[in-house]
Write a structure and sequence with these properties.
It is built from 5 helices and 12 strands. 48% of the residues are buried. α1 links the parallel β1 and β2. The chain has one domain: Carbon-nitrogen hydrolase (Nitrilase/N-carbamoyl-D-aminoacid amidohydrolase, 4-Layer Sandwich), CATH 3.60.110.10. α1 runs parallel beside α2. It is an alpha/beta fold. The chain starts with a strand and ends in a 9-residue tail after the last helix. The strands form 2 sheets. Strands 5-4-3-2-1-12 form a 6-stranded mixed beta sheet. It has a 6-stranded mixed beta sheet with strand order 6-7-8-9-10-11, covered by helices on one side. The longest helix is centred in the last third of the chain and has 16 residues.
Length: 251
């Protein structure tokens, strides 16, 4: 699988973000991963984002599908999805192209002084997987990364790659936590992790692709960037022969 991570900031104008998404989607990739909330940034902490919520077949998801079709790829990107509570939409990843899925973020960012649940509704716990270029891809969003049981559930369901679009807020220790947790999810589950972040200064940036033994294949700094990597099922199989920790579990 040829994967591209697009570390670009989301603005506050949805139409501009849709246009940039189509411009930034490259040719020659099987999977293109944009950050969380790329349809429209969160705005100031605690902002009401309900006015920017859309349906899964609305303007943003349609733009994602169009970009995927135009470039013969599969695109993952984040948006706010209208739900039963008009005041508290879902934080949703849309997957369009060779695969189709809508994943609603399960763990809302009620941590480090933030209260995402005041403005958003959590999705029901689920294992969201799609097949892309012959690999099983599990979906997580940002704060989900801090919950190892979620990554393990996806791997138990068959995931060979974990994709984690994020808007990982910057601050003391945050970049270190981000990199450590991305590598930990890869190592403990012997899977690839493809982690796409929004760039600084508000967010940490530092998008990265990690292989199933924890080696970093590609990594960005804080500035906007594009990462490319190739993922192989054979590498997953070899990692699991070298480190059969999944097979050795006793709990």
């Amino acid at each position: 699988m040829r994967v591209v991570v697009v570390q670009e900031p989301a603005g506050l104008e949805p139409a501009a973000n849709r246009a940039r998404l189509r411009e930034l989607t490259p040719n020659g990739a099987d999977l293109v991963v944009f950050p969380e909330a790329f349809a429209r940034d969160f705005g100031e902490a605690g902002s009401d984002v309900s006015g920017y919520a859309e349906a899964p077949d609305g303007p943003f998801a349609t733009a994602v599908a169009d970009a995927a079709a135009e470039h013969a790829t599969t695109v993952v990107a984040g948006m706010f999805e209208a739900g039963a509570d008009p005041a508290r939409p879902f934080n949703t990843l849309v997957v369009r192209g060779a695969a189709h899925a809508d994943y609603r973020k399960v763990h809302l960012y009620d941590s480090f002084g933030y209260r995402e649940s005041d403005r958003l509704t959590a999705g029901e716990p689920t294992t969201a997987l799609v097949e892309v270029a012959g690999l099983q891809v599990g979906l997580m969003t940002c704060y989900d990364l801090r919950f190892p049981e979620m990554g393990r559930a996806l791997v138990d369901a068959g995931a060979e790659v974990l994709v984690v679009p994020s808007a990982w807020v910057a601050g003391p220790r945050k970049a270190d936590h981000w990199r450590t947790l991305v590598r930990a999810r890869a190592i403990e589950n012997t899977v690839y992790v493809v982690a796409a972040g929004q760039p600084g200064p508000r967010y940490t940036g530092r998008s990265l692709v990690v292989d199933p033994l924890g080696d970093v294949l590609a990594e960005a700094g804080e500035e906007p960037a594009v990462l490319r990597a190739e993922l192989s099922r054979d590498v997953v199989a070899e990692a699991r022969r070298t480190n059969p920790s999944l097979a050795n579990r006793r709990l």
